[in-house]
Amino acid sequence: MNHVFTYSALGNIIALVPLKHHRSKSLQAITTLHPNVDQILIYAQHHKLINVQIYNKDLSPAQQCGNGLRALAYHLNLTNLVFQVSNKYYDGYKINDSYWINMGAATYHSYQKTQHSAYHRIHIGNEHAIFLQSMTE
Hints:
Blueprint: E1 5-9, E2 12-18, H1 19-22, H2 27-33, E3 39-46, E4 49-56, E5 61-62, H3 66-76, E6 80-85, E7 88-95, E8 98-102, E9 107-113, E10 118-123, E11 127-130
Parallel strand pairs: 2-3, 4-6
Antiparallel strand pairs: 1-2, 3-4, 4-5, 6-7, 7-8, 9-10, 10-11
């Protein structure tokens, strides 16, 4: 029986593996069986508290993955839950059939301008680049 569940979450392919089944599957075996996976989430559920270990495609540990946590909330089909990733906690909510994860406040790092584009660097647990463009008709 396959205990690796995959979801497409806003362009990312997320693999969800219950901890009790992870013991028999190595991370490398998961990426071999599912080569398009972007993140792997190993999880253990304790009522509404979900302990999560997150790994990137290259098997390096990740501190957070909002799309992955949303996919896991959908998979578990819980209305309100709390994710524990390392020593951080994230609240998850189901509102009108959509799942929301409170990732905390973003911090602004800087404005960057290159030859081809300009963008803002922000940090929401990991670095993101925000590109703004004007919308004209």
